[in-house]
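User: These chains co-purify. Model them together.
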Amino acid sequence: MSSKILTVDDSKTIRMIVKKAFKSYDCILFEAENGVEGLASAAKDKPGLIILDITMPVMDGIEMLGKLKSESDLQDIPVIMLTAESGKDNVMQIVKMGVNDYMVKPFKGEQLIERVGKILKLAPAKAAEEEIDDPSKKYFSVDGNIQILVLPKKIERQTSVQVEGHLKNKIKEMATSGMNKLILDLLKVTETNVTLIKLIIFVIQYCQKSKIHIRVVSSPALSDELKEFAETSEIATSHSIEDAKATFK
Amino acid sequence: MNEISAMDLKGFVSNTVYEVFDTMLSMEVQLSDTDSRTTVDGDRIMGSVGFAGELTGNLCIHVSDTFARLMTAAMLGMELEEIEGEEEVHDVIGEMSNMIGGNLKSAFCDAGFPCNISIPYITSGSDFKTESMNWVRHECLVFLYQQHLALIEVFIK
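Assistant: Joint model of the two components:
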């Protein structure tokens, strides 16, 4: 069953960061902008955990926590305070009020997941589970009889090594299944660097060596940039997957 | 107020700014030795929080519109084109003020000056200036990220 988490914060930014942090987990997220909305959501949605800001308009986090703890049907909901105020008095006050944990801003999404994981059992979302089962799904997918390889916006050494490893396995699978077409999709790439260039060359050469027909899709801007590198200056590119598919005979 | 005058405000604010920019935006800012009378010109945004209690004060962040948009994209993990409007940008600058100000408020409380912090407020435009008067301390720190400036001002009395 999905974990239900309520974020109470007047900042849309923080609510978005929290939402992104839980993206890979099987969670239903509820949001409230202040303590009044937070109490209403807690009563209606019965979350398994509340992530609560302190400084908010209308009703702040301290007041909301007090009211929550005085309601018999809500008092057992675990609460993690998320606050920019790390002063001793502040921390003592919220600890005394019965919060399960507190985090001081600034924070990273992973740190929040770690803290929440100590209170709630977080299960990976279905898509994330599939990625765990087959990590190549992060980059590879099949469209009809064409293998699609999508590169992320920035290629770092570690990503390049992963893609190279997955590609070798995919090519073997393609040979077994009789598939011989691959589209290298660079539409998400926003940063051109040497690692990217090397990876593009590797993919093209490996496909050619394995008798796989390859097409490259990139934005017009990236196509222009590729022309500036000696190694990639001759590569023909399409600007959409559909255009690339049409070039296969 | 001798304790306030003796506080290493510059060191504390610098460390907080480094940490907030690094953790939330993955940006390594550098404290610049540029003249503290430096201003951010053109279209700009100022995020502020106020302190009230045993001491009174303000913390303000001034950044250009361009830098504010870069900061927004970095904090929300999106591309510049994906920013929906100025509400998102203002919220991010407000949250940055809240984080830096919240840490500063904690330092004041721990130093024996209990105070409360306001919710952040935003001023934006190209033709405004802020003036301060009668403060016991006023610090202005200039931080650089690539060619972008972030001015952090702290006023206390």
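Residues 163 and 181 of chain A are 17 Å apart (CA to CA).
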